[in-house]
């Protein structure tokens, strides 16, 4: 078994602003695992937040070559990969994805069947509106719902007054859309409740509120949840199975990102822990190509919310195969991940 990789750039159609940064471009590394005539693919993207650049990614891949060279099957390589320590979660997730792609190709089945969802159903995805003016947000919302999107996610956390005005404007432009509000930890607990109270007074009903405060304070999350009229979802606070078990009874749901937890295998363990703890699951992503988003799409049968629009934010997606352009994610049903290079 051997691994290889290539690097390419991903330009966004429009820069995306969130509470902690503005992004217009990132690099991606496609990994390939070859075994018995099959090739499995995965993708890891660079991230300032996760402290991953191209050098950090490729140097770690180079150090993992011997592990793959000595593995006699994709299943053995998967076990060995997850037994390794000090592998960045994004790198682990890309290799985990490539191995699941390889396993699914060998079995002649889509990845979602390996992940416990035999019968696939199309699913709506949220589309992210970055921090902007109320007028621009309303125009985006109208255009997106006109294309077919039924779930809109608004970034917030830079200015509470503007955040409220943006959500009210989006609700006016898209009266039937489900709305998710995400400040990426940009508010304090008190500020969170004030914003939610103002939105309630304006008649805005939210479908979810995601990670309103910085991670690391479950007591504050519980305090917010008692005052939050919408389901409260933890993101940065929910990276591992242990995190999710701690959050049972504290929040209503957890955001599962493969680049955060390390791939399909740990994601399924987190989904199981969430279910045991009475928590709903949101599947999230980073900005990536369809190759990078595809593994989470294959998991979406386990989720209440799918926030898998990373490929839709690109000026040019080098891969295709998961849909989403009209607000609905679709899989072809072919073996493996089902994505193809354009």
Task: Characterise the protein shown here.
This protein is α/β, with parallel strands linked by helices and 342 residues long. It has twelve helices and 15 strands. The chain has helices at residues 54-70, 74-83, 89-107, 111-114, 134-147, 160-173, 189-201, 218-225, 241-247, 258-261, 264-276, 290-298, and strands at 2-18, 21-35, 38-45, 123-124, 126-129, 151-155, 178-182, 208-210, 232-234, 253-256, 280-283, 305-306, 319-320, 328-329, 340-341. Strands 5-6-7-8-9-10-11-12 form an eight-stranded parallel β-sheet. Strands 1-2-3 form a three-stranded antiparallel β-sheet. Strands 4-14 form a two-stranded antiparallel ribbon. The radius of gyration is 20 Å and the shape is globular. The two termini are 26 Å apart. The mean pLDDT is 97.
Name a few traits of the molecule:
342 residues, 3-stranded antiparallel sheet, TIM Barrel, Enolase-like, domain 1, globular, alpha/beta
Layout: helices, strands, pairs:
Layout: E1 2-18, E2 21-35, E3 38-45, H1 54-70, H2 74-83, H3 89-107, H4 111-114, E4 123-124, E5 126-129, H5 134-147, E6 151-155, H6 160-173, E7 178-182, H7 189-201, E8 208-210, H8 218-225, E9 232-234, H9 241-247, E10 253-256, H10 258-261, H11 264-276, E11 280-283, H12 290-298, E12 305-306, E13 319-320, E14 328-329, E15 340-341
Parallel strand pairs: 5-6, 6-7, 7-8, 8-9, 9-10, 10-11, 11-12
Antiparallel strand pairs: 1-2, 2-3, 4-14, 13-15
Helix pairs in contact: 2-3, 5-6, 6-7, 7-8
Number of domains: 2
| Order of helical and strand elements | EEEHHHHEEHEHEHEHEHEHHEHEEEE
Q: Strand tally, please?
A: 15
Return Rg in Å. 20 Å
